[in-house]
Amino acid sequence: MRFKLALLLALLALPLPAAAQSSQKPLQLIVPFPPGGSADGIGRILAAELGARLSRQVVVENKPGAGGTIGLMAAAKSAPDGDTLTLGATGGLVINPHVQTDHSFDPLRELAPIAKLIDIPIVLATNAKTGAKSVKELIERSKATPSGLNYGTTGVNSSQHLAVELFKRMTGANLVHIPYRGSNPAVMAVIADQVPLVSSDLTSAHPQIKGGLLKAIGITAARRAKTAPEIPTVAEGGVPGYDGSSGYIGIFAPAGTPANRVKQLSGHIAAILAKEDVQARIALLSVEPAYADDAAFGKFLATESAKWRDVLKPRAAVR
To answer: In angstroms, rounded to a whole number, what is the distance separating the alpha carbons of residues 59 and 124?
Structure first.
């Protein structure tokens, strides 16, 4: 009897197989942006929902920097076992690779797409008390300022940045880019009257717009945002044909992650985004659910990358 008990205890002390150990440790979800924006919001919703579906803890880790590239690189260097995932946004995925001088990191090659999650409306906004009240007034003020009007964004070559660069080319507006480490700092800089304009994801700016601290002068996409239909588009504000598009966020695993694991996770994401309570929480972020599975998202990213490569090809970098 004692021998059997000792044998049982010895067996219990043996290390579990790698797969069993992996399923018990927390799953890491990297958010390559600071807390408070749309990426952080959707990341925390996913962490809670995935954790419940997988019966496993999902830990969110914010790794901001370089327009989202720092977090993407950290995920790409992780073991391809499905235990590390990352969110990725437009700039870090399909813009930065075409403007950076160091081409050692290719996110579309080193990461495996799992699913597209959301589209992110981008809004141009000014200080409600001192800023321009319309697109036309913004253009006029900028042209009347020899040094130009500063505008803040979440970073160089982000969707927010390029939306304004397109606006400048189409209108001749004299605007000077000031990159921040996230949309929230850029929004707060406008509220504090440190810069006169912000190009921000609607998630970060909408509460301040509704609170009367910011004046929204236009959505950069071709259509109004579903979550803020009262805000006109920039095109409606006097720039016919302007379409600065929206941003988007997807979820990825390191390249080499088993295909069945990617498919499994993509299925979980589809089920999560189909839930009415999740859609309601996403709407509170002022973003729009836009699920695409791993295959469709991969094709979408390839098309997006080719589009931005052609746009950015004439320049080594966008300032």
So the answer is: 33
The total domain count for the chain is 2
First to last CA, the chain: 77
pTM: 0.77
Alpha-carbon distances, residue 244 vs 122, 163, 218 (angstroms): 8, 5, 11
Split at pLDDT 50, 70, 90, the class of 257 is: very high
- Which residue, 199, 219, 239, sits at the end of a domain? 219
184 with 200, same domain?
A: yes
Range of the domain at 252: 27-120+247-312
- The mean pLDDT of 130-156, rounded to a whole number, is 96
258 located within any domain:
yes
Q: In sequence order, what are the beta bridge partners of 29?
A: 60, 85
Q: Identify the H or E element spanning 130.
A: none
Q: Looking at residue 233, what DSSP letter applies? A: B
**How is the beta sheet containing 111-120 ordered, strand by strand?**
58-62, 27-31, 84-89, 247-254, 111-120, 288-292
- Distance, in Å, from the CA atom of 6 to the CA atom of 30, rounded to the nearest integer, reads 43
CB of 32 within 8 A of CB of 39?
Answer: yes
Where does the pLDDT of residue 36 fall: very low under 50, low under 70, confident under 90, or very high at 90 and above?
Answer: confident
Per-residue confidence (pLDDT) for residue 289, from 0 to 100: 93
Q: Please tell me the predicted confidence (pLDDT) of residue 132.
A: 98
How do beta strands 214-219 and 122-127 pair?
A: antiparallel
